[in-house]
Amino acid sequence: MEHPLVFDEPDAALERLRTLCLGFPEAVEVLAWGRPTFRAGKKIFITAGSSMDRPHSIVFKPDPEERRALVQDSRFFVPPYFGPAGWLAIDFGAPDTDWVELAELVETSYRQVALKRQLRELDAGRPARAQDGSE
What we know:
Aspartate Aminotransferase, domain 1; alpha+beta; 21% strand; 6-stranded antiparallel beta sheet; Phosphoribosylglycinamide formyltransferase
C-alpha cells in the first residue's frame, strides 16, 4: 500500500527544514510513509509531518534529560507511532516559528542517532549551511 504524500511541493517551510537537516554530516533525505525523513546514515533523526492533520510538524528525538521539560511546554506533543519510543513533535512553518529553536532541536535529534565519526565531523566545525535553515 502506497502512502499519500503529506506535502505538496514546492513548500517553503519544508524547503527551509530540508536545508537545515541536510547541513549535517552524511545526512540524507528519504521519502517514507509519504513523508520526508532525514537520516544520519540509515537512522532517522527527523520526520517531517507527524500526521496528515499536522503536516507542518517535525518528529524528533530529544535528549532524554531535556524531554521532561519539553513535554511541559504546550507547543510540543507526543506523535503517533514514534511517541512510545520517547520521540516528540512540534509544529513549524507558521510566521512565528522560532527557527533558531528548531535548529537546536534538529541538532539534538541528529546527535541522538549519529555515528561517532559523524559527530566528530560535526564537532570539527565542518562548514555547514546556516544553522537556522536560511540561505
